[in-house]
Amino acid sequence: MISTTDFFFPLVDDPYLQGRIACCNVLSDMYAMGVHEVDTMLMLLGVAIKMTPPQREAVTREIIRGFNDCASEAGTSVTGGQTTLNPWPIVGGTATSVVREGEFVKPTRAKQGDVLVLTKPLGTQVAVNVHQWLHMPEKWAACDGVITVEQAEAAYQTAWRSMARLNRTAARLLLKHNANAATDVTGFGILGHARNLAKASEEPVTFKIERLPIIKNMCVVNEKVRNFRLLLGLSAETSGGLLVSLPEANAEAFCRELQEEDGCPCWIVGRVIEGQRDAIIDDNVVVVEV
Asked: Cβ(267)–Cβ(284) under 8 Å?
């Protein structure tokens, strides 16, 4: 049996969208192990007591609807959960599947010579914060001359569409293309999660990240407004992509099939080399704006 639990605070202003993102985020832990058929989910929900009763009812209803719709899209269902009162909303859940040996990808088998593929762009934390600053004049003032309102809105659109997209297709392709290991990229950033995966590897390897696909205009915000450590690979992501270690001969087919089915690009971002169970950002890392 494989099971996971995750929850977090809202980061978008649309409660339906927040429910979808939360469901995607929970399921990504399963998808990182190649488990693309999830047997059941439970929902965890903190209802905000600081809202008025009508606000609380409307927001809670939409969060639940978004979570359930996403679960249905993923081919699973929410069979229960737990609700509690909290000063502010919290949303998350659990996901569980029973699988046979050989039907999932263990996070311990990255091999020297593998390449690293990332299935979603980086920079969601930056994009969400910039969008919030649009409604905070004292913070938006720091963006004057750095990024326009239109560019901020476009980055936010890219971010929420990415966060609300399931990694289910990528999970199925892990097994098809003989991936050796994978992780989802969330709170520790791409470098932090790459380090965790390298530390778990049976072989002494280092993950070398040579390319960073980043939402357009977020690098300049990181450089000139606030340092989110984006170019260091340490900026937190929510419902991020899968970072996949797989044989080099299979990587292009994996990326091509994922783009054909999901309609979104993915990138070969690095390689697995001999090392000491660590991860590094290459000195000459290439930034690809998305």
From this structure: no
